[in-house]
Design a protein that fits this description.
By secondary structure, the chain is of the alpha+beta class. The protein has a domain of 74 residues: GTP Cyclohydrolase I, domain 2 (2-Layer Sandwich), CATH 3.30.1130. It is built from four helices and five strands; from the N terminus they run βαβααβαββ. The chain is elongated. One of its GO terms (molecular function) is dihydroneopterin triphosphate 2'-epimerase activity. It is an enzyme of class 5 (isomerase). It catalyses: 7,8-dihydroneopterin 3'-triphosphate = 7,8-dihydromonapterin 3'-triphosphate.
């Protein structure tokens, strides 16, 4: 099998991670958990993972997902912007991540709208 020349940049997507949190500033939002839908997209150099075919050489996106769940599920946040920033920070704590984008939806936050979302990104 021939090898492709160049960087082996992988794009990983964690799609529609559905969690519940206290999110908002109104009394109803402070007292009742609501759904939040988290989407993460990130890139990292997967050259070692491709060549070694070993989990130790890959970015462990399961670990990242578990960290996000532990941070968000059942916790309190006033602003969607702050929650999005905190989740992005968790992703970027992993040194192998070169670029990441986090979008968090708050379903039914506005009348007549399916959801409201905030999207933030960072890169090294």
């Amino acid at each position: 099998m021939t090898d492709v020349i160049g960087k082996k940049q992988a794009r990983v997507r964690i799609k529609n991670l559905l969690l519940r949190a206290y999110i908002g500033i109104k009394e109803e939002e402070i007292n009742n958990q609501q759904d939040v839908v988290i989407n993460v997209e990130l890139t990292y150099d997967a050259g070692d993972a491709i060549h070694q075919n070993a989990i130790e050489a890959a970015l462990n996106y399961r670990t990242i997902t578990k960290q996000i769940i532990a941070h968000v599920d059942g916790n309190r946040f006033a602003l969607l912007e702050r929650l999005t920033h905190e989740v992005l920070s968790i992703v970027m704590e992993h040194g192998a991540v070169q670029w990441a984008q986090v979008e968090i939806d708050k379903p039914h936050a506005l009348r007549y709208a399916e959801s409201v979302s905030v999207c933030l990104e960072a890169h090294r």
